[in-house]
Amino acid sequence: MTVDDGDREAVARFRSRAELPGIIDVHTHFMPDRVLRKVWAYFDSAGPLIGRPWPIAYRDDEQQRLDTLRGFGVRAFTSLVYPHKPDMAAWLNEWAADFAARTPDCLHTATFYPEHGAGSYVSAAVESGARIFKSHIQVGDYHPGDPLLTEVWGLLSEAGIPVLIHCGSGPAPGTFTGPEPIAALLQRFPRLTLIVAHMGVPEYSPFLDLAERYDNVHLDTTMSFTDFIEERNPFPRTEYARLADLGERILFGSDFPNIPYSYVHALDALERLDLGADWLRAVCYGNAARLFRMS
């Protein structure tokens, strides 16, 4: 998608209506180029985890993508990387650490996989300043309760570092997706700070239950409420009141650049929930600023 002045102006109008100082986007993807191109190829193929046409809206080079986010007024974002097999996570963490070092507005991101040595490289990432970790239960095809991750969860629980976790069964179910494995994980590590990606689509209500039960469970809005998701997995209107009640633990995420629509549509989709400007300000900026201790 070619970003023109109209796109930037549309986002600016949204920010003005909500009186936002900027946007914090907790769900964006920056990866090594060859990894990102493989991800894009998978989306292009409408693979089994996708199951429908999914055109990448912002298929640009890295600097153009950074310029696009900054042009939209995004003040902080993530470089969510994730492995799909052993022996990937450590070198992805090295890349992400370098990216964060040369990109000050990126929240230093890291990841992990159930493998021997995971505790060691996660500990190293924490010591080097990682501020958020990514776990992808669906793509990684692992159970969050895998014994090889016990040390990892303990480290991250103790450090209080958020883990953004794709654990819902959308866009297609995985072997270990759904709320039950996460409920079991939280019983073992009740202080763990989790951000449930995509509002837990399509198991919205059970993940809202977990957020009500555990004070450190958050949800991100990534792709939720957009026309693309509402077509197949609509968020139940009967749960809107719970969105309002949990407004301090919902964070804006976009899935940029891998979205099949314009960036502003993700923001407009939140505004049309009609939960008020205070809710929008908290979701799009304030909650993440507090969680990541940003001035």
UniProtKB/TrEMBL annotation:
<dbReference type="GO" id="GO:0016787">
    <property type="term" value="F:hydrolase activity"/>
</dbReference>
<feature type="domain" description="Amidohydrolase-related">
    <location>
        <begin position="24"/>
        <end position="293"/>
    </location>
</feature>
<dbReference type="Pfam" id="PF04909">
    <property type="entry name" value="Amidohydro_2"/>
</dbReference>
<dbReference type="InterPro" id="IPR006680">
    <property type="entry name" value="Amidohydro-rel"/>
</dbReference>
<dbReference type="InterPro" id="IPR032465">
    <property type="entry name" value="ACMSD"/>
</dbReference>
<keyword id="KW-0456">Lyase</keyword>
<dbReference type="InterPro" id="IPR032466">
    <property type="entry name" value="Metal_Hydrolase"/>
</dbReference>
<dbReference type="GO" id="GO:0016831">
    <property type="term" value="F:carboxy-lyase activity"/>
</dbReference>
<dbReference type="GO" id="GO:0019748">
    <property type="term" value="P:secondary metabolic process"/>
</dbReference>
<dbReference type="GO" id="GO:0005737">
    <property type="term" value="C:cytoplasm"/>
</dbReference>
<protein>
    <recommendedName>
        <fullName>Amidohydrolase-related domain-containing protein</fullName>
    </recommendedName>
</protein>
